[in-house]
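Target chain:
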Amino acid sequence: MGILRVAARTAVISGTATAVSGRVASRQAAAHAANAAPAAPAAPAEDETATKLKQLADLHSQGILTDDEFAAAKAKALGL
């Protein structure tokens, strides 16, 4: 009877350790996700560039900018 009792006790301890380990891992993962800095949105930079290009195109179509001025300003806005 002693061997069965030891085996049962070992199984209970092992099961408890596994459950606790899983709970700790899930809590750490949740804490890591909560502490992670949110990614900076990329849309505003693209919106600014698109807006600038539209403004330049409007100025070019109105004849305010020459072809060379438009090309230079567009290259500058695109970072080329």
